[in-house]
Amino acid sequence: MYNQAKKCALVTGADRGLGLSLARDLAKAGWQVYAGRILSEYTLLDDLHKDYLNLIPVWLDVSKPADICLIRDRIAQDVGYLDLLVSNAALMGGNGAAELGGVNPIDFDAMELSFRINSLAAPLLVDILFPLLEKGNMKRLFFTSSEISSIKLMHRTGDMRYAMTKAALNLGVRMLHNSLRPLGYTFRLYQPGWMKRVQPDGTRSESGNVDPDDSARVALSLILEERPDEDRLILIDRFGHELAF
Q1: pLDDT tens for residues 63-84?
Q2: I need a surface site. Which of 26, 81, 101, 144 has the fewest CB within 10 A?
Q3: 98: number of CA atoms within 13 Å, CB side?
Q4: How many structural domains does the chain have?
Q5: CA atoms 21, 22, 27, 33: torsion sign
Q6: Domain that holds residue 158
Q7: Can you state the angle between helices 17-28 and 44-51, rounded to 10 degrees?
Q8: What is the Cα–Cα distance from 199 to 196, expressed in whole angstroms?
Q9: If you ran DSSP here, which 8-state letter would residue 158 be given?
């Protein structure tokens, strides 16, 4: 029999940033954490694994169903269940100033890849991992969104690629909520803030105004705490403010 006293989580996009910090904090709290990686130049997860043997780095390209199936089979063999899915992987690269008719044209090939990673991966992960999630006791689904996803608040002309993909993510999460909330699943849709980029050596970039460690602490509390209104899907920021989406 599996020991379900130990919670099990999968965190995607854990090479750096929010995913790395959240995977570490979950491991510190005693969780068995499978941390998805894809950036070969980053070894920060390997360094964490030396301190937390319950944090297991795994290769995971969330745009590829075959990769997700391999992780599903690995978790099924090792643990047998999954309490928490953190869908955090995202593609943010490219020119944020690109706009229709502008000096910097929109790269529609890059936009297509962004949709596969930022939007389509969320329901794909839930679908493939569903048998494991059904065996977990917690049944919690966490999705990293963005303020830029809000259609109501949108005022920009640039960065169409990231904005569209995160807006699509929100709708996908809404539909997952409609389907899975009656089955006991609970949802967290989180705006982490404009985070400083974590470099391969662990240093932070000059740009950004939020350290990933700080945002991850808020995310962890959202994951661990029950809400009185779980039937309502909300997009929440690190200050606890609800955002229109």
Answers
A1: 999 999 999 999 999 999 999 9
A2: 101
A3: 16
A4: 1
A5: negative
A6: 8-243
A7: 10
A8: 9
A9: S
